[in-house]
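Task 17 of the worksheet. Students: predict the tertiary structure of the chain below and write it out as structure tokens. Keep your answer in the requested format; marks are given for formatting as well as content.
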Amino acid sequence: MASAGNKRSAIVTAAVMIGGSLAWIAGIWLSGLEGSRGFFGLGPLIADANLILEIFLVAGITYGFVLARRGNIDAHQLNQTTWVVLNLGLIALVMAGSMQDVKIAKTADLADWRVGVTWLHALAGTLTAAGGLWLVLQMNGVLPASLHTGAWRALMRATLAGYWLTGLLGFITYYLWYVA
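Model answer:
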């Protein structure tokens, strides 16, 4: 079990990471640089910044799985909570707004690879974020006991797979919009 000082330090580190990451994204928007050339030279700065943070997010969520398998549940709880909160912030600051560029007028619009894959990414990401939020609320004692799921292990595994699927679809979406 972690000491109170170690746990406090981990919480502060998590808060700084979330705050710093979201401040970086907000700073890009507030400075009007979101559409400028990104790090990779292919997409806009906001897409590149989001891609980098999402890579860390999938790696971090996967590391949380390792923590749970090793029996370090306190660290797992803090780790997963951190990444889920960051993910929700990225959805709010980057991804939700970008969907306005991918409107569907008719079902046939989904046949366009860029549109279809982007919406599949959004659907997988929404379900994954909902699963992650549910688990974080349950494991942190915020969700009322009547709403707890007994199938939490299955939901954790499905959510981890969802993060990987969403990440893969995010790479494909990036490729279709900025590389192909």
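Marker's comment: Helices lie at 4-30, 45-69, 73-98, 113-139, 152-178. The two ends are 50 Å apart (CA to CA).
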